[in-house]
Design a protein that fits this description.
By secondary structure, this protein is of the alpha/beta class. 25% of the residues lie in helices and 35% in strands. The strands form two sheets. It has a seven-stranded mixed sheet with strand order 4-3-2-5-6-12-11, sandwiched between helices. The chain has a five-stranded mixed sheet with strand order 1-7-8-9-10. A hairpin with a 4-residue loop joins strand 8 and strand 9. The termini are far apart.
């Protein structure tokens, strides 16, 4: 991730996009964030806030009050609501600053929430779990942040620490191959909803590399306050998830797909939510 000033916002002809009404076209970021980009990151996941309700329902269906493993937790978008509903949570993220924001949020609510959350600073590619869990989450398209070579090992690690009857839930954006071939470069423009007196507009450019099955999104942000305008460039790198390969990796890890939810975003993109159970 990098910030730039001056002429960082190159001229573009973007597709206009309304975060408050349109479905997410796979623009979520899986990179480490900072205090200046928190509004953007929240906005990118905001349209999928209903996933919190779905994941809470799944946690109740798996029985008990946890523990829940939130992988790639960020600043606590899921962990804190889970704790507020009485679930014990282990939040794992590679971004130490995000974990501190998570803890600060929980402390502001009170000890009844903060005491239910344990944070672990770790990269998912090197994850070594210590406990056992009723539910593990790879939400917010975090599975696309894991390199394909590292993904089978991560899934095996998760599966080996699920309780009997436990589940792994994950979501990702499925970019349909014909759409990628026809349009490997896409540009979007949108306003970030903010409530701090700053007017923020973003141009996001998606560039897909089909040969490498990878994607890079560059966000060109312009933030205007009363006295000045700041311009920043943020990037995130993701891997295009192949559903067949993912299903095979889950099976190899000892998991089977027990539930699948698809939501078509447009003719070339859909969001997918999988609920995976242990084979035993």
């Amino acid at each position: 991730m990098q910030k730039q000033s001056g002429a960082a916002l190159a001229p573009v002809l973007p597709s206009r996009y309304d975060l408050t009404t349109d479905p997410l076209p796979g623009l979520e970021s899986v990179a480490e964030g900072d205090a200046d980009s928190v509004w953007l990151y929240d906005a990118l996941l905001g349209p999928h806030s209903a996933d919190i309700v779905r994941y809470l329902g799944l946690a109740r269906a798996t029985g008990g009050r946890g523990p829940v493993l939130d992988l790639g937790s960020g600043a606590g978008r899921l962990s804190v609501p889970f704790a507020r509903h009485g679930f014990a949570v282990e939040a794992v993220d590679r971004d130490a600053d995000a974990l501190e924001r998570l803890r600060a949020w929980a402390r502001r609510i009170g000890p009844q929430v903060a005491d239910l959350i344990v944070t672990t600073h770790a990269d998912l590619t090197e994850l070594r779990l210590r406990g056992s869990y009723r539910l593990a989450l790879l939400a917010g398209a975090m599975v696309s942040a894991v390199p394909p070579k590292a993904r089978p090992g991560l899934l095996r690690e998760i599966a080996s620490h699920l309780d009997t009857g436990g589940a792994l839930a994950l979501d990702y954006t499925a970019h349909l191959l014909p759409g990628l071939v026809a349009e490997p470069r896409r540009t979007w423009a949108f306003q970030v909803p903010r409530f701090d007196g700053i007017d923020e507009w973003v141009v996001a450019r998606q560039v897909f590399d089909i040969a490498e099955m990878s994607e890079r999104i560059t966000y060109y942000a312009s933030r205007t306050g009363k006295l000045s305008t700041e311009r920043a460039v943020l990037t995130t790198d993701k891997w295009i998830v192949d559903p067949e390969h993912l299903a095979a990796e889950l099976h190899s890890a000892g998991l089977h797909i027990a539930g699948r939810r698809r939501h078509r975003i447009d003719e070339r993109t859909e969001s997918v939510l999988l609920v995976c159970r242990t084979d035993d």
